[in-house]
Amino acid sequence: MRRGSIASLLGIGVVAGGIAAAVALALPWLPKPASNEADRVDPLFWFVIVVCIVVFAAVAAVMVYSITHFKAAADDDSDGPPIHGHTGLEIVWTIIPTLLVTAIGIYSAVVLSRNDALGANVMRVNVTAQQFAWSFSYPEAKGLTSGTLRLPKGRSIQLVLQSKDVIHSFWVPEFSQKEDTVPGIVTTLHFTPNRLGTFPVICTELCGLGHSVMRTSVIVMTPAAFDKWLASQTKAVSSPNAGVAGAAVFKNNACGACHTLTAAGATGKVGPDLDKLPAEAQAANQPLEAFVRDSIVDPNKYVAPGFHPNVMPATFGQALSKQELDALVQYLISSSKKG
Ligand code: CUA
User: Fold this and answer.
1) Is residue 125 helix, strand or coil?
2) Is the beta carbon of 203 within 6 A of some atom in ligand 1?
3) Ligand 1 centroid distance, CA of 201 (Å)
4) 229-260 tens-digit pLDDT
5) Is the CB of 214 under 6 A from ligand 1?
6) Is residue 311 predicted with pLDDT exceeding 90?
7) Is the shortest distance between the CB of 205 and ligand 1 below 6 Å?
């Protein structure tokens, strides 16, 4: 091979690699990491990108060189020379990709096993997915439930995920961690949040009409603030005063996002107006308490005129502890009578 050819190949390779590197660096591919696991996944991602850029540069160099140097004349209709393999070349193009893919495989396996390893003092959170909402409950706090995931910074978290209906997938981009929820089986996901803030929880498995709105937030707090929140919520939910307990359950489960309830300062318009519960129970020909309880546990039992079935996830009612459900029912009854 002539020295000039090698110089041309190298030159084209450097230009192609430079363009690919500029594209890789210019676009914001990854969110700012917020977990120990993301801090391991991001360098792995960049390692793969670098391998891809080197392979791309080599292929582009040979391709561009061949097109420019071996072009046949416009009137040359003859066949090219018959070529039957080149053992040296074949060994090279087998060994190099084998080494690259093996390196990526080993690096990935190391990252995966480190990311899956639970740290000391793991906190478990049960996650229930249902068309189209997430619900989180804290076994450490007697099953306190919340529609928003709150976590302490720096603690090893294990999510125990279940689905009530179809396959969903739990994803927090800033944590670089993702896990499917599959009806009939229990899956788990481990991560350690290491940055304070509010990040999106996204369902990343097409699960029906409401898939795109199956989102909530994860709030990473200081351990002190988290303990305070957990204690205040546990206290509120177990308060003998149904008004206090029910109000906490109402707020934790974001009922006000869809419903209006004057007592809670909620003005949602997606579902029926909860200030009018007594009138609706009458219209459904049910005693008020039974009507309210049924409507939480089985939202499709009585669908108010002008509203659609299957909009309210039964997750809410089914994920609540008996104590939380009782408190919520009493709270709604007393609030709606005032409203
Ligand atoms: Cu649940 Cu998409």
Assistant:
1) strand
2) yes
3) 11
4) 988 888 777 777 777 778 878 777 778 778 88
5) yes
6) no
7) yes
